[in-house]
Design brief:
about 250 residues; alpha/beta; Rossmann fold; 7-stranded parallel β-sheet; about 40% helix; about 15% strand; globular; binds NADP nicotinamide-adenine-dinucleotide phosphate
């Protein structure tokens, strides 16, 4: 068990990639605190799996777009556990449209959910009473560095997120925090349903992926466990692609 006695907090942790990370971290011995927002049924179904595996867990419903909600969530964690050792920023919001069609309120919602939440949760994590260093992981995507059709505001928010990870790594390294970003290739979760050209996107990805398969949530979770564990103790401030070679080809 690589993460025994660790306290892990995962935003958007009840379905998709977040669910796989929550389960993997819990199976490695951590107590996992799973944030979700709307899909209670996904949380309930996941709870059955955690129970069946004898995992230690807690669900906290709340909107991480909102600073007051983060205050409430972090206060609950601090009161019950005293610290967060592992923070995974996984929740995402965004609209898939070109820059010309983006309404300012959606940009603000995207930045608040995808980036500002990391700022606030990191500040809370590092000032909890039993804070003793730890690992921060942010889920990013290639669209933060390259142009993907209609990915305008999500990509821009991911660019800011990657930069923030580097600044967190630099500032909190002396306090024992490592911060890294994971950049998965296309992973077939419900998020893909927002892309009108989903089938084409999957086909193009497969054609251009040297390893010939899509990245799975479990692939991402394996990397997350590694980045939380001591086996990665000298890795910080990095953006790590996990995409079967897709980002290097073409
Ligand atoms: N799928 C891909 O191909 C891919 C590729 C590269 C990077 N990524 C990144 O990987 C991460 C996970 O992606 P995914 O595909 O698993 O996403 P997903 O299936 O759409 O799940 C998104 C999660 O975020 C939660 N969420 C959204 N807004 C929230 C808010 N305001 N407060 C709290 N939770 C909120 C949702 O909770 P509810 O269900 O309760 O609403 C859900 O659990 C994202 O950061 C994404 O950008 C994904």
């Amino acid at each position: 068990m690589q993460l025994k006695d660790k306290i892990a907090f995962i935003t958007g942790g009840s379905r998709g990639i977040g669910r796989a990370i929550s389960l993997a971290v819990a199976l490695e011995g951590a107590t996992v605190i799973i944030n979700y927002l709307r899909k209670k049924s996904a949380a309930e179904e996941f709870e059955e799996e955690l129970k069946a595996n004898g995992c230690s867990y807690k669900f906290i419903k709340g909107n991480i777009e909102d600073e007051a909600e983060i205050d409430r969530i972090c206060a609950e964690i601090s009161d019950e556990f005293g610290r967060i050792d592992i923070f995974v920023s996984n929740a995402v919001f965004g609209v898939v449209k070109p820059v010309s069609e983006i309404k300012r309120k959606f940009w603000e919602k995207t930045v608040n959910t995808n980036v500002s939440s990391v700022l606030t949760i990191t500040q809370k994590m590092t000032s909890m009473p039993d804070f003793n260093g730890g690992s921060i992981i942010a889920l990013t995507s290639l669209g933060g560095r390259r142009v993907i059709k209609d990915y305008s505001i999500i990509g821009s928010s991911k660019a800011a997120l990657e930069s923030m990870v580097r600044y967190i790594a630099a500032e909190f390294g002396p306090a024992g925090i490592r911060a890294n970003a994971i950049s998965p290739g296309v992973v077939d979760t419900e998020a893909l349903d927002f892309f009108p050209d989903k089938d084409d996107m999957i086909k193009t990805t497969l054609d251009r992926t040297p390893l010939g398969k899509l990245t799975t949530p479990e692939d991402v979770a394996d990397l997350a466990v590694f980045l939380c564990s001591d086996k990665s103790k000298m890795i910080t401030g990095e953006v790590i692609n996990i995409d079967g070679g897709y980002s290097n080809s073409g």
